[in-house]
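Re: the 898-residue chain
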Amino acid sequence: MRAANDAKTITSLRKQAAHRLALVSVLLAIGILLVGLYSFYLHQTREVAQKKAAIADYYAQRVPAKDAEWQAMAQRMQTRIEFMRMLEETGPQRWSRLTSFLTAQGEFADFSNLLILGGDGQVLYRYGAEAQRIADLAPLLASGWYADIARREVFRVLTTGLWLGPSGGAGKLVLLHTVDNSSLQALVAPEVHLMLLMNGQVLAASHPDSACPAHVEMASDLIKEGDGHVIQSAMDWSTVPGSPRLIIHSEFRDSFPLPEFLLRPVAAIVLAVVLVLLGLGGWLRKTVSRIESLTGAMRQYHQHGDTVQAEQAMQLAHARPDEIHEVGNVLLELMHSVDERDREQRAYLDTLALLDEAVLELDCDGRIRLASPGWQRLMRRREEAVGRVLADYVHDDDAEVLQKLFSAFTHREKDQGQARLRLRGEISGQEQWVECRFVARVENDCVVGARGVLRDITQTYLHEKQISHMALHDALTDLPNRVLLEDRLKVSLRMARRSQQMVAVCFIDLDHFKNVNDILGHKTGDRLLLAFSQQVRERLREGDTLSRWGGDEFVLLLPQMGTTNDVREVLHKVMESFKKPVRLDDVDFVLTFSIGVALFPDDAQEVETLLSQADRALFYAKAQGRNQACLFGEIAAKGSGRTELYLQNKLAEAVASERIQAWFQPLIDARSGACVGVEVLARWQDAEHGWVSPATFIPMAESLGLIRELGSQVWLQALNAAQAWRAAGHTLTVAVNVSKRQLFSPDLVEQLLGQLTVRGLAPEDVVLEITESVAVLDAANTAEQLAALDRAGFRIAVDDFGTGYSSLSQLHELPADELKIDISFVRRIHEPAGRSMVQAIIQLAMALKLKTVAEGVEDEATAAVLRELGADILQGYHFAKPMPREDFERWIADHPVR
C-alpha cells in the first residue's frame, strides 16, 4: 500500500513537470504575442498622430483662406450694388429695382439671401426665402453663421458697409453664403472627407454619396469606416462662439498590416517554445529521476533500516553538487540521527525502567494503554494494569480531580496539567501520595488521550505538611502563631456577623516573667511557658484558639460568645486554674498574668483594631497592678483609665497624622567646646494636655505597637535636618534612639541605608543609640543585628550605661563605639561614690577603646570634673536644652560648630 502511494506521488511529480512545461510555454507565447501587439499598437498610434497633425496644419491654413475668398466675393457684391446707385433713390421703387437687379445677376448664386440694414440697425430690405424667415439678427451677426436645422442648411454670414444715398446714409449689407456639400468638396484634400457639424448635427458633407451620420462621436482618433479605418479629427471654423466644427476624416492605411506584423512574434513564440522544451524538458526529466532516487532510498531505509543500502540507492541524486545532492546528504544525516536516537531511546527506556517513576499512556476515558515497569513498583502490585481505568487505583476523594483534568484535555481547555493524588493502598487507611504530570496526545487536531508521569511524593508531602505546620505554629509551644491566629480571627468575625454573636480577643502577658529568665535561665522560662500553654488549653472549648504572640505574650480567641458574662466566665476558669503553683523539677512557681480583652462588635469591627484595643486593655491591666483581666469597654469609663485611653487614642492619631516632632540637643566636645553633633529626641504636644512627657508616650507607643512608625517619623526628620546642615557646611553627627521593636526588624539595615542614600548622607554620619537593657535582652540576636549595622558603617552607642544588667563579657562582644553615662551617675559626680562610679565607667570605655558621652551636665563644675576624668562628649542643660530645629539652627549661629 505504501509503495502504491509512493508510485502515485512519483507519477504526480512527472505530471506536474509536464504541466509546468506546458504552462510555461503557453505563458511565454502569450507574453510574446502581447509584446508584439503592444508594439504594433505603439507604431500605429505614432502614425495616426503624425497624419492627424499634418491634416490639422493643412486645414488650419485652408479654412481661413476660404473665409477670405467669401469675404472678397461679398465686397464685390457691395461694389456692384453701390455702382448701380439704385439705393440713392427715394421711394419704394428702389427696392423693386434692386430685386430685379439681383434676380438678373447670375453671379449672385453664391449669395441667395441678403439683408440691408439702415444706420439704426433696422432691416430695410430682405432678399431670399431664408432671409425672409430670419427673425432675430443679433445671434447671426455675432457668430457669423446661420443654420436652419429643420432644412439641414447652413449659411456663412458676411457683413460689409453699404452707402444708402444722401437720405439713407451709411447702412450695412448682410450676405448669406450657402455652405453645402459642394462648398466642402472644394476644401477636400486627397483621401479626406469633410463634414460640417453645427448644434450637434451634421449639416453638410464633402461625400454625400457615402454613409453620412447625423451625429458624430469623438470617442477616438482612429475609427472603423467600411472595410478600412479613418483618422478622425475636428477643428472650429473660427474662434467666434457659435461657429460650426469641421469634422475631418482621412483614410488610414498601416505601413505594416497586422498579419504581416504578427509573423515575427509567432516565429519568436515557436523558437522560444522549442528552446524551453529542449532545455527545461531534459533537465526536468533528470531532476525527477534524481528525486525518485531519494524517494527510493527513503523507502529502502523504511523497510530495512539499513543506511548503507539507502546510500547506494541515492547515487543518482549525488550525480551533481547541487541542492538535491545536499538534500541527499541531509537525509543521510537524518537516517544516522534516527539510528542514534533509536539507540538512545532504547537506553533511555532501559534507564527509565530503573526509576521509581511510572510512565503511563492513557486514552480519553482514562484507560491505561501502556505502562512502564515503574508502575508496578509504584503500586507495589504485580497485576497487569493495561486495559484498566486509572481512576480504579485513585482514592475516592481525588477521583474527581483526575476526571476534571481529563475533561479539560478533551475540551481543549488545556494541553497539559498536573495534580497530587492519593493511590489506594493494599492496606486500608494507608495513603500513598503521587504527583502526576500529564500532557494531552493530539492527532489530526483531535485529542486521543494523554501521556504522563507519576512520582511517589509521600515523604515530600509529609515534609511539606510538617513545614506548613511549623510556619503556622510556634516552635516552642506548638500553639498557632500570629499568621494562623489572624486567619482564624477573620473567619470568626465573618461567622459572628452572620450569627449576630460576640467574639472576644484576649491579650495575656505573664507578670514579671523576665525575672524567671534572668534568675533561672531561658530553658526554665521556656518550660514554664510550655506548662502555661498546656494548662490554659485544658480549660478552653473546642473552637477556642490560644496563640503565642511572642515572648511571654499570648492571645486567646473566643468565638461564638453570647454575652460579656460568658467571656468573664471563661477568663475566670483560666485564672482559677493557676491558683495552685505550677511545679517544675520539684520547684513550685506561682504564675500570675494580666489580660486585656476587646469584644466584637462592641469595641471594634476589624481585626487590626480589635488587636490594638485588646493590647491597650492589657496595658491598662498591667498599669493597675497586674494579675487581673480588664475589658476595653469598661476601662474607657473610668477616670484614670479614661485619661490614659484618651492619650492612647490621641497618640495613635498623632502618629498617623505625623505630628510627632523631632527636637535636638547639642553634643559638646569636652576638649574644644564645639558642637560636634546632636541627640534627636521625640516630642509630642496634645491639644488638651499640652506637652506629654516622653516617659509617658514612648512606653505607650511600644505597648500600642506604634513605636516603629513613631521612630520612623523622628528618624526622617533628623535625616532631613542633617541634609540641610551638610549643605550649610556643618558636619554634625546625628544620634537617634532605636527601640527594641525597631532593632529586631528584619529589614532595618536596608531601610536605613536606602533613606541615607536618597539624602546623600553616609552611615558614619549617624549614631544609633541602644539602651543597655535592650542590648542584653536577647544577647545573641542583639549582637547579630548590631554587627550587621556595624558592617554597614553605622556607629553604635550604648545608652543609659550602668543601669542595666550587662556583664563585661557581653559589653566586650557588642560592636559598640560609644558609652553614654546615665544621668543618675552624673548627678552624683560631686559625691565620692558617684565620682568613683563615673571614673570607673570612663576607664572601662578607654580600655575597650570606646568614646564616652556624659548626659545631664547642668553646670560648669560638673563639666569641669567630667573633662578631668576624661569624658569625650558632654550633654545637658548647661549647654542647651532640647529645642526644635528652627531654634537649634539659631543656636548654632551663635556657638562654635564643627
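The chain has 30 helices and 31 strands.
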